[in-house]
């Protein structure tokens, strides 16, 4: 039995077997499980499993941090062990009860989780886009690659298409994902986004003003598609079965489209413009202080799940300005944590903790910080504070230097350097180095209680 299958088997045992699974899924770094009977869980045993670097509970969901890429492999192995994906399916009634209970306890957290579910599937596309854009920036520099741009203009042109494609269809992707999250028809979600983005809107005058294609960006799409899903569900219950298939999409499109153009797109425009200008103003005017506060408080936001509410802001900044000044600041939070983890590695005598840090540091350098957060700094207490303070130092410098990236979200750490705007790359790397040093020094000076086990 390979390590992945062995870990999957151990997790199944720790959560009380397949019959206790209500829902099983994964994100980039976590195995996410909802169970029928909490009493059958052995949390202590799950935390000690080799390969599990941390445990978090959000609402009704138990999350085991196993690392990037590994999470999908473990979930696939679990589904295989229990007889395929169908056996891991959850009971709709019980799941709805669990969700309702979760909403009652933490409605804000649940709303943000739904918002994140719209954008998380887009992360691979944003990563590819950002890295391709970074490669283009390098290939255009004669001091690095000579006359490459002059000799291979077609290659650069194709790379440009590859890197910008996600932004060309951004609203459509968000529309489809929003419909999926809110329980509507995926195609209808894409249609609503298509209506808002149609270039033909510019040829139509309403209330004395020409309409603006794409106004409101993803904010308008979220509002319109959420309304579309609500209207579509109402018609499903009101219309007879013989007519519902025909009349529902017709009436939903006409009603939602009208409200979208007259009310929701202008409202979305005001909101998105306020977000983009407000965030830019805060970063431009705040300097050291705003950068320090943003980066220093980001890790606590991650713990609560509130960081998910920042995703539309990242998207709006890129759509409005062509660059994102917020992401490099927030990425310093994870960088400070790298410094804190190195300090723990050098001080601790615990063999298992050393092994855990050595396994989590490489991905931490690449911007994936959850194994370090939940496996190292947070359980030890003071190193988590040291990581926050180190991130605050880096965030203050990045904000003061006005470092920006061309990507929305999905990349941080060292890979983000490839996507930094021209002329700011060395400043980003300097900020990265100083955040590591600061996180190390704060943690070293504050110390921590070295665990015996």
- Mean of all residue-level pLDDT scores: 84
Give the helices and strands as they follow along the chain: HEEHEEHHHHHHHHHEEHHHHHHHHH
Oligomer: single chain
Main sheet strand line-up: 1-2-4-3
| Helix-strand category | mainly alpha
- The low-pLDDT segments are 84-107
Beta strands, count:
6
Give the percentage of residues in beta strands: 5-15%
Helical proportion? 55-70%
| N- to C-terminal distance | 27 Å
Major beta sheet summary: 4 strands, antiparallel
What would you report as the Rg, rounded to the nearest angstrom?
24 Å
- What characteristic shape results from the CA principal axes? globular
Given the structure, what is the number of helices?
A: 20
Kindly describe this structure.
- The chain is mostly helical.
- It is 68% helix and 6% strand.
- A four-stranded antiparallel sheet has the order 1-2-4-3. A two-stranded antiparallel sheet has the order 5-6.
- The longest helix is centred in the middle third of the chain and has 56 residues.
């Amino acid at each position: 039995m390979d390590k992945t299958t062995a870990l999957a088997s151990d997790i199944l045992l720790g959560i009380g077997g397949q019959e206790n699974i209500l829902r099983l899924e994964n994100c980039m770094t976590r195995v996410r499980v909802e169970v029928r009977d909490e009493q059958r869980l052995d949390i202590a045993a799950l935390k000690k499993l080799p390969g599990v670097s941390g445990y978090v509970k959000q609402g009704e969901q138990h999350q085991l941090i196993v690392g990037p890429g590994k999470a999908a492999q473990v979930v696939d192995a679990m589904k295989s062990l229990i007889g395929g994906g169908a056996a891991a399916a959850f009971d709709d009634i019980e799941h709805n009860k669990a969700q309702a209970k979760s909403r009652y306890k933490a409605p804000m957290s649940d709303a943000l989780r739904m918002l994140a579910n719209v954008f998380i599937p887009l992360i691979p596309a944003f990563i590819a886009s950002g890295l391709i854009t970074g490669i283009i920036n390098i290939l255009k520099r004669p001091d690095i690659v000579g006359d490459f741009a002059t000799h291979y203009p077609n290659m650069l042109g194709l790379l440009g298409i590859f890197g910008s494609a996600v932004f060309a269809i951004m609203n459509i992707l968000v529309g489809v994902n929003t419909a999926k999250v809110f329980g509507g028809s995926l195609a209808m979600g894409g249609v609503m986004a298509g209506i808002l983005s149609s270039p033909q809107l510019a040829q139509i005058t309403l209330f004395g003003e020409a309409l603006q294609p794409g106004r409101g960006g993803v904010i308008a799409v979220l509002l319109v598609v959420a309304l579309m899903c609500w209207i579509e569900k109402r018609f499903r219950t009101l219309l007879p079965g013989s007519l519902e298939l025909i009349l529902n999409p017709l009436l939903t499109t006409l009603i939602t489209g009208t409200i979208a153009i007259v009310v929701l797109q202008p409202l979305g425009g005001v909101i998105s413009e306020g977000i983009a200008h407000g965030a830019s103003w805060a970063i431009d005017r705040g300097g050291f202080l705003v950068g320090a506060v943003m980066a220093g408080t980001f890790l606590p936001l991650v713990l609560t799940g509130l960081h998910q509410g920042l995703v539309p802001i990242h998207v709006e900044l890129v759509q409005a300005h062509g660059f994102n000044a917020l992401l490099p600041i927030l990425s310093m939070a994870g960088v400070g944590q790298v410094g804190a983890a190195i300090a723990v590695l050098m001080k601790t005598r615990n063999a298992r903790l050393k092994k855990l840090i050595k396994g989590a540091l490489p991905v931490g350098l690449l911007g994936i910080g959850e194994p370090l957060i939940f496996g190292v700094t947070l359980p030890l207490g003071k190193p988590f504070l040291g990581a926050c303070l180190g991130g605050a130092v880096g965030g203050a410098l990045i904000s003061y230097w006005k470092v920006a990236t061309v990507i929305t979200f999905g990349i941080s750490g060292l890979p983000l350097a490839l996507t930094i705007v021209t002329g700011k790359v060395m400043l980003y790397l300097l900020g990265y180095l100083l955040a590591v040093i600061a996180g190390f020094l704060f943690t070293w000076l504050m110390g921590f209680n070295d665990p015996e086990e």
